[in-house]
Amino acid sequence: MAALEVHEHDVLVIGAGGAGLRAAIEAAASGVSVGLVCKSLLGKAHTVMAEGGIAAALGHVDPQDGWETHFRDTMKGGSFLNHWRMAQIHAQEAPDRVRELESWGALFDRTPDGRILQRAFGGHTWKRLAHVGDRTGLEMIRTLQDQGVHRGLEVYMECTIVHLFRDGDRIAGALGYWRGSGEFVLFRARAVVLATGGIGKAYRVTSNSWEYTGDGQALAFGAGAELIDMEFFQFHPTGMVWPPGVQGLLVTEGVRGEGGILRNKDGERFMWRYLPEARRQEYAATEDEARRWLDDSVAGRASKSRRPPELSTRDNVARAIYTEVREGRGSPHGGVFLDISYLPAERVRRKLPSMYEQFKELADVDITKQPMEVGPTAHYMMGGVRVEPDTGAATVAGLYAAGEAAAGLHGANRLGGNSLSDLLVFGRRAGAAAAAYARSLPASPRVDEGEIEAQMRLLLAPFERSEGENPFALHHALQECMGRYVGIFRTEADLSAAVDELERLRTRLARVRVEGSRAYNPGWHLARDLQNLLIVSEALTRSALLRRESRGAHSRLDHPQLDAELGKVNVRVRRAGNGMSVDLTPLPEMPAELRTLFEPAREKVS
Amino acid sequence: MSTAREMTIRVSRGDAQRSEWVEYRVPVEPGMVVLDAIHWIQANRAPDLAVRWNCKAAKCGSCSAEVNGRPSLMCKTRMDHLPAEQPVSVSPMKTFPRVKDLVTDVSWNYAVNRRIAPFTPRPDAQWRWQQSDVDRVQEFRKCIECFLCQDVCHVLRAHELKDKFVGPRFLVRVAGLEMHPMDGGDRLPWLWNEAGVSLCNITKCCTEVCPEGIHITDNAIIPLKERVVDRKFDFVRWIWNQLRGKPSDRF
Known about the structure:
CATH topology of the domain at 237-376 in chain A: Flavocytochrome C3, Chain A, domain 1
Structural class of chain A: alpha/beta
Largest interface: A-B, 67 and 59 residues
CATH class of the domain at 237-376 in chain A: Alpha Beta
Number of domains of chain B: 2
Oligomer: heterodimer
Helix content of chain B: 25-40%
CATH superfamily of the largest domain in chain B: Alpha-helical ferredoxin
Strand order of the largest sheet of chain B: 2-1-5-3-4
Number of strands of chain B: 7
Number of helices of chain A: 18
Largest sheet of chain A: 7 strands, mixed
Shape of chain B: elongated
Largest sheet of chain B: 5 strands, mixed
Distance between the termini of chain B: 64 Å
CATH superfamily of the domain at 237-376 in chain A: Succinate dehydrogenase/fumarate reductase flavoprotein, catalytic domain
Structural class of chain B: alpha+beta
Low-confidence stretches of chain B: none
Strand content of chain A: 15-25%
Order of helices and strands of chain B: EEHEEEEEHHHHHHHHH
Radius of gyration of chain B: 22 Å
CATH architecture of the domain at 237-376 in chain A: Alpha-Beta Complex
Helix content of chain A: 25-40%
Low-confidence stretches of chain A: none
Shape of chain A: globular
Number of strands of chain A: 20
């Protein structure tokens, strides 16, 4: 065998979306050696798909906004299962991170007085999302990428990490393979930051690309770190439903932020029926009020009217659409209608250019003239690696996580726009903490040679089999299982069936066979990614079984109510030998001074 | 749901050394794009067929290839917009070395990008501007780095002048920096001396293939050429600076 390629860094960042890039930039700024590994080419991570904007209480359009309100919205949106400290840090630091991005060259849309423009989004009290039309994520990743390449980072593109090494109880490095050649590569590292994003490829109807196979969560799990909140998986309310090839493709919440109206096949604006009683007073009571709010919004001025019902939180809108379709009031292709065609065509094209293109090119629909058809699509994992709020440190020394791979900020449901700010706020903190930790180590940890050999053998095993299953067929079976049993609405029986099916899939995966050579072989890549998908799917399903209540994105038909006791705990997942242990762990309690922000009198003021 | 209709796809398969056309019959569904067909082949006929892709929504620029000879994003190219009576041919971008099948080595582009002086805020930057001040720059920043403009550019494709010319993509990037209202950097000497801005003879092929509809030639390259020429060949300015004892900014 050829000699193993080896690289050594103080900090190894895995994943080069917004969180990974921001972490790498911060670590490099402190003078340590940083490697940045990504499965795709640089700049292609799913951050480019983030469309609507980045949430930060800048108060440019609605001057009443401030970090306290953003904090409150985030906690309410997450059904109070968020880690209060992460929600606080996030709300306080997001404005600085947005201004920083601007100082690095990002060009956000402007208010009439020349400042960063902000738009409305679901669950946000005020207009809060800094944006660039509907391509905010592209602006963000390109800005970070162009900063990053001048900061002395080593970027390893199209490289998949498959295993984390430990030296005793510390992280020591990672094993990967080059997607192009199929050759192995060892990274010795004092600290590792996981910024690998989500798990969306566990579902067939998904907004996620091939990359999102739960790598970070599975790597952390394998290394002995804790995962929490894995039962909270967000179905974005609006994905495309037609034609078949684009099913699941994201339709930005920005459409609703810009005035998009949801209707069923009878023309009814149904979202009013689904507003939770406790929050009904936050939304417009009539079509007229919603329209006044929109007119103010278009004019870029603060509004005395309340926001339209379409801007309810994502968990709620997704359930509403799902229910409309199930009860026979759906559109021809099994979705509902989302209409923005009543606005001037020029405005629609200006504020939602990529939606306009997407529907025109892929679905032959002109959204300035016709309604879109939309339905829920698998989108975002709220759960993930359990981290220290201030540092992003996982429960294994030297391991850090940020962005979608980490848990805590979003609780039971994420508000739109809070993920881009999450990436910057916690990417930066994880990068800084990982660098400080790396510097504090007196010597580099050691990687066990035998463990390297064993991992390489495991990876090559599918080539050795003369017969066995096709990885694409297995992936299809996994997606069928998760779609059928672990969707928006869940029951004990369905979840149990999923656990059994996942067990069978694991047996089948052990016999998967790969054809062809090691050079750029998607079948082989998928065969390995499926291991991660099975781990995160099982974690999701087992966590969902344990949470016998309905909260945020987790809806149990057999337990439709909130359970106050379960509101005090997170579900925790850990490795136990070759298996998985799932239990409850206390949710950190919010300090009194933050609790007062939720008193009705305080809510009125800010 | 699927119809009985089938189409033939010819995929150029191989590596840097050899390649061959391989034909596949693929069932065609309504609204299907070329990338869907490639994925069908992967899942059902050739699991080792190499292709790059990510977003499948024309937002990431990963799935660039040549469909019936035309540089295209596979995720945006509808099967029902292609002639049904002949096979659809899919081959990798010609301008870059092939890694395998439809995947090419585009690392040269990343190396070029590193050579561009980054955004450099002016010391007096106020961070306030009107939307109309940045409409033009926002157009450039729509670029998804699919490198189709690089693929079609004859300076790179036919004349193989990668060592002398950075290509349309990076002229767009430089234009985005030079026209940024807060940028204080000066990349004009670099454009002339190293980027090879004069090698572009504005045939506009890049503009034609840009999936983002960026007016690459008219809005980015021509204004850059004008700025470079204005500075380099403005002798009045040069004499004025000499008379006032100011250092020359010619290059």
